[in-house]
From TrEMBL:
InterPro entries: Antistasin-like, Hirudin/antistatin. The lineage of its organism: Eukaryota, Metazoa, Spiralia, Lophotrochozoa, Annelida. Its main location: secreted. The keyword Secreted applies. Residues 1-26, 29-54 form the Antistasin-like domain. Keywords: Protease inhibitor, Secreted, Serine protease inhibitor. This is Antistasin-like domain-containing protein. It comes from Helobdella robusta (Californian leech). Belongs to the protease inhibitor I15 (antistasin) family.
Amino acid sequence: CSEAQCRMLCPNGFMRDHNGCEICKCNECDGVLCRMYCANGFQRDANGCEICRCN
């Protein structure tokens, strides 16, 4: 994959195409619904969305 050449900021990372390569569209993630406090933020899944695990 070549790096996505976008001029946009995507806090949840970029979407991926059928090959798993980043495309110039932002991920729309649901909020993390867990009762943990993570001082260094949450880990992210393969789609760039936060999951209920601390960094």
